[in-house]
Specification:
Largest sheet: 7 strands, parallel
Number of strands: 13
Number of helices: 10
Structural class: alpha/beta
Shape: globular
CATH class of the largest domain: Alpha Beta
CATH architecture of the largest domain: 3-Layer(aba) Sandwich
Bound molecules: nicotinamide-adenine-dinucleotide
CATH topology of the largest domain: Rossmann fold
CATH superfamily of the largest domain: NAD(P)-binding Rossmann-like Domain
Amino acid sequence: MRILVTGGAGFIGSNVVDGYIETGYSVCVVDNLSKGRRKNIHPKARFYEVDILNRHALEEVFIKERPEVVNHHSAQVDVRRSLSEPLFDMSLNIEGSLNLLELSVKYGVKRFIYASSGGAIYGEPRFLPLTEEHPIEPISHYGVSKHTVEHYVELYRHNYGLNYVVLRYSNVYGPRQDPYGEAGVVAIFANLMLKGETPVIFGDGGQTRDFIYVKDVVDANIAALNKGTNLCLNIGSGKETSVREVFESIAQIVGFKGSPKFQPARKGEVSRIYHDVSRASSALKWTPKTPFKEGLRRAVEQIKKEVLV
Ligand SMILES: NC(=O)c1ccc[n+]([C@@H]2O[C@H](COP(=O)([O-])OP(=O)(O)OC[C@H]3O[C@@H](n4cnc5c(N)ncnc54)[C@H](O)[C@@H]3O)[C@@H](O)[C@H]2O)c1
């Protein structure tokens, strides 16, 4: 099977590429390296340094590679940047995705796997755990743009028969997460603590998230190659963990003795969230397997190698 992965030099996309190649698939990567890194790209993947907004260059890749599956991970992923630069967020996340959908239909792609956000599209939860039936009430431009593409994906199935799987990720963490980004609390905290610096907690630290280890997300992307057809699926651990608990667990692994600094809560962020993943479990025959502390240990190990060299 030939698979085109967009964002395959980034955090999640590059892990997905590794998983596909290790499973025996033929993979090409499209990434403009705005955030991703060349060294993340698996040596067996064919790499195209192409912007998904550049329709012409993107079409050349489709002509050359003739992918059977498009797995779409490229995006503007910064919630705060989406609030300050809404047009940029809209353009990359919506227009870029439309370019891919149009070309997928034109070149006979069989399946479109879309990385959506279970953390951003539902808004402030009305009930927990969040199921896929929860109202869609995003409180950031990023949440709106990520969800809008789900409508297009369904539209392209309805009008052109393009099968899809939408994977709505919760908070993903693990190797290759950017410790200098605005999100990704695990990588940010671990990086600072390893350097003996004090992490900042926005709010009182009681806010909760559903943290899922990236390898479990990769397994969902592998399963989505032939299961979960035309469904939107929450992909999370199904567990609720507070930011304060994240701080304490990483401090224990790293041996960090300090206390966090506290600053006011940030706009566009929900106070509590975790997901019901039973639909994904039955549709994909998938379960998240990595215990949080084990995942944290592996994430810290990788950051140690990267940061302290
Ligand atoms: N990290 C999470 O917890 C999380 C949660 C929910 C959803 N997601 C989604 O998963 C996907 C991957 O997120 P990530 O955390 O790995 O982010 P990331 O920034 O590490 O990866 C995104 C990749 O897209 C590339 N890219 C950006 N603009 C591009 C463009 N115009 N053309 C081509 N490539 C471009 C970047 O260089 C980068 O390699 C995104 O779609 C994001 O919305 C992530």
